[in-house]
Structures are given as C-alpha cells and as structure tokens.
Write a structure and sequence with these properties.
The chain has 417 residues and is mostly beta strands. It is 11% helix and 50% strand. The protein has 3 helices and 18 strands. The chain has a 16-stranded antiparallel barrel. The longest helix is centred in the first third of the chain and has 20 residues.
Length: 417
C-alpha cells in the first residue's frame, strides 16, 4: 500500500509539473490549435447562388417557375426561385468531394455528389465518380450562374434533362506549362438515366475532346467534338421506326427488353475578343444530330426511376444554337442575342407532319432570344430576356396551322456568393 501510494503521489506530482505552463506557452498552444482549425477550414469551401425570377408568358407558354396557366385563353405570370444552389467542396491532397443542393419553394433536391481524384505524378489525369455534368458539348457544363440566357437550349433540355448523370469518367489534360495543355479529353460511362436511380445493367458512353487557345491578351478560341452512344429500354413489343415519311411498326415479342440505339454527335465552338473601347465580344455555337428513341408523345431522354412500359418511337433529330454577347463598352451592361432550334424528326416537315403516325411532337421549333445583363457588382446581376418561340406549321394538326402563342419574358435577379 505504501508503494502504491508513493507511485500515485509521484505521478500526480509529475502531471502537475507538466500542466503548469507559462503564459507564453499557453498562448502558443492556443495559437497552434487555432492554426489547425484554420488549415482545416481552408480545405472546406461553400459557394452558391440564388435566382429570384418573375416570368410572363402568352397563353400557351410553359414557364420555369410557378404552376401552369389557370386561364388557358389568357396570358399569365409567375414569380419564384428558379435556382437556389449551395455547393460544398472539401479538398485535401489529391482528392476532393463535392455536394450541391438546389433549394426552392418546390423543395430541396440534390444536383451534384461526386468524388474527384488527381494524379500526384504528372498532374495530367483526373478520375471522377458520382453524379455530375455530362461531358458533352459546352453548354451543359457552362454554369447557370454565368449563362447569358435564362435556360439552356431546347435541344439540350430534351436530350440531357437535369444536365447531370450518374457515372464515372477520366479527364486528361497536360499541365499549363506544356504546349499540349490546350487539349482536353473527357470520357466516361454513365447510367443514362439522369440523376435518378439506375434501372438497367447497361452503361452509356460519353466523350468530349476540346481545344482552347488564347492568342495574346485579347483573343480566345475554343473548338470541341462530342459523342454519345447508349440505349433506351424497349418496354413493349411495339417499336416504330421511320421509313421515308411514315412510322412503320415492328411488332415482335423479342423486342421487349432490347435497347433502341441512342446516338448523338455534337460540335461546339467558342470565340471571344476584348477591345479597350468595345469591351468583350463573345460568340458561341453548337450543332447536334443523331438518333433519339422516345415515345409517341415525347422525344425527351429517360429521366425516371423505373423502366418504360410504353411503345418505342425511333427518330432522327438535329438541333443547336448560336449566341452572341456584346459588352456596352466599359459599362457593366451586355446585350444578348440567341437563336436555338430543335427538330425532333428530320424525316418529316411541314404538312408531312400529322400523317402516317406522326403528330405534334414531330414538329420542329426554334427560339429567338433577345436580352440584357446588368452586372451591378461582383455578386449581384440583373437579367431581362424575351423569347420569341416559333413552331413548324402543318395543316394536319389542329391549332398548328399557325404559330402557337407561347412567347416568354423573364426578369431575374441573381446573387452569387
């Protein structure tokens, strides 16, 4: 007992000596702890933006905020939060993780959730897995907080709903010190079902090869080519394909469970030049064409958490856009002009539509957009934009022998942080 008491007494005395620090030592410990906390916070970043929006539409318009028109014979308007994004990024060493949420009056949903790993040897390879932007073209990855038109082009809204998909890809690009750094290759395998759960065992391939070059201090040029190869599940024995100007039925039980070819080819270009008196001038364009399986009443890509149980309609499509942005000298204002088009069925046009199994969903459409941007400061931006929406006309579908009334005006205030 005496030995035990002596040991405890000695330990207590030693501990007391260890904790008795000078004021300077205590301050140093506090400083080290604070520095460790700051170092961890530096690895964690929070960013986002909020888009408050007012929209007016003609009687047949489809707006991005609010509900549909309660008076189908009158124009209507809505207010809402178009996007309320908050993005969390944590980066340490060669790895980083990203989560992005979308918070609006409609509820809370996720947009991004992925892991990114960089190679520590050549600084030329990245691996990404999770839910993120599809590597196709330029407009998909061009952030909604920067885009000069309120929405992406019609062809992208139909082919790539939600812009994102579940998958994994590799990114190859040489370091900036290399002359090969102007080239960038993105390629991966994806579920092909948007941000919803995967519903089959197949994977779609998406690839994008781009080249970007800066000439001097004022001119920039970018070119790119994209390819998509995938399939859409055939839920019934009825598969319709276009022959000349008619849908022809292939009715065979063996069609069930097979996959209709989903194949896109795209080209994109970006050009900008800066003038001391004129400000920044930008011109961007994309053109897409290919095969798109859909249904009788839709040409949109799959974006559901269950396999389709409807007849398959195979169509060839084409579409694209051209956008021109001109700064007003050195003022914080820009003028915007955009033309985009989408032809869901290139095999028919005009009065051919509405016959031989075709319907209004085979009509082409185009949009002429005119707008203005006011960059109030680095965080605040005001956008006004009017869309003249036009549809292809046919005498064989009621209401489409003339242009339907679906023009849209958007007024948006954006705060970015």
């Amino acid at each position: 007992m005496l030995a035990l008491f002596g040991t405890l007494l000695f330990s207590f005395s030693t501990f007391a000596q260890e904790v008795e620090l000078t004021p300077l030592e205590e301050l140093q410990q506090e400083t080290d702890a604070l520095q460790n906390a700051v170092d961890k916070l530096k690895k964690f970043k929070v960013s986002g933006y909020i888009q408050g929006q007012y929209q007016w539409g003609q009687e047949d318009a489809s707006l991005k905020v609010g509900t549909s028109n309660e008076h189908p014979d009158k124009s209507f308007n809505r207010i809402g939060i178009r996007r309320g994004r908050i993005k969390f990024t944590y980066e340490e060493g060669i790895a980083s993780g990203v989560f992005q949420l979308d918070i609006t009056e409609k509820g809370v949903g996720f947009k991004d959730a992925y892991l990114n790993i960089k190679d520590p040897w050549f600084n030329s390879i990245q691996l990404r897995a999770g839910i993120f932007d599809r590597p196709f073209g330029n407009e998909i990855s061009y952030s909604s907080s920067r885009r000069e038109s309120p929405e992406r082009s019609t062809v992208f809204q139909n082919l790539f709903p939600d812009e994102r998909d579940l998958g994994a890809m590799i990114i190859l690009q040489a370091p900036k010190t290399s002359p090969w750094s102007i080239l960038k290759l993105e390629a991966g395998l994806f579920a092909g079902n948007g941000i919803k759960q995967e519903t089959d065992s197949r994977k779609d391939f998406i690839g994008h090869l781009s080249a970007n070059k800066i000439f001097g201090n004022h001119i920039s040029l970018g070119l790119g080519a994209s390819y998509y190869n995938g399939g859409v599940y055939q839920g019934t024995e009825n598969v319709y394909s276009m022959q000349n100007t008619s849908f022809v039925l292939n009715n065979n039980e063996s069609n069930i469970g097979k996959y209709a070819s989903r194949e896109y080819v795209g080209f994109d270009a970006q050009f900008s030049v800066y003038g001391e008196t004129t400000g920044m001038t930008q011109l961007r364009a994309e053109y897409l064409f290919g095969k798109q399986p859909g249904t009788e009443k839709s040409t949109k890509s799959p974006n559901d958490s269950k396999l389709p149980e409807v007849d398959t309609y195979k169509r060839n499509f084409s579409g694209g856009y051209v956008i021109f942005i001109q700064d007003i000298g050195q003022l914080p204002f820009s003028a915007v002009f955009k033309f985009d088009w989408y032809d869901p069925n290139t095999k028919v046009s005009g009065d051919e539509v509405g016959q031989n199994g075709t319907n209004k969903y085979d009509l082409s459409q185009n949009t002429i957009g005119v707008g203005a941007l006011w960059r109030i400061n680095n965080s605040l931006r005001l956008q006004a934009y009017y869309e003249f929406n036009n549809n292809e006309k046919t005498n064989h579908i009621a209401g489409y022998d003339s242009n339907i009334k679906n023009d849209v005006f958007t007024l948006r205030m954006q705060y970015k942080f």
